[in-house]
Design goal:
Length: 88
C-alpha cells in the first residue's frame, strides 16, 4: 500500500510540473500562429509556464512533507505498537 501511495504522489508531482509547462508553451505557440505574433509571445508563455511548474513542484513537495510529519506524529502517539489494521 505504501508503494501505491508513493506512486500516486510521484504521478501528481510529474503532472503538476509537466502539464503547466507544456500547456503554456502550446498556448504561446498557438497564439503566435493564430495572431501572427512574434517569438516574444512563446518566450513569455515559456516563462509563465516555468513559474507555474516551479510553484506546482513547491506545493507538491510541501504537501508530501506535511503528510510525512503527520505520519510520524501518528506513530509517536501509538504507544501500543502496531495494531491489526496498521501493518505494512
Amino acid at each position: 500500500m505504501k508503494e501505491l501511495n508513493m506512486l500516486v504522489w510521484i504521478t501528481q508531482l510529474g503532472m503538476g510540473v509537466a502539464m503547466p509547462l507544456a500547456g503554456f508553451i502550446y498556448l504561446g505557440i498557438w497564439l503566435r500562429n493564430k495572431f501572427s505574433l512574434g517569438a516574444w509571445c512563446v518566450i513569455v508563455f515559456c516563462v509563465i509556464g516555468m513559474i507555474t511548474a516551479i510553484d506546482g513542484l513547491r506545493v507538491s513537495l510541501k504537501t508530501m512533507e506535511r503528510l510525512d510529519k503527520f505520519k510520524k506524529k501518528k506513530k509517536e502517539r501509538d504507544i501500543s505498537g502496531v495494531s491489526f489494521n496498521e501493518h505494512d
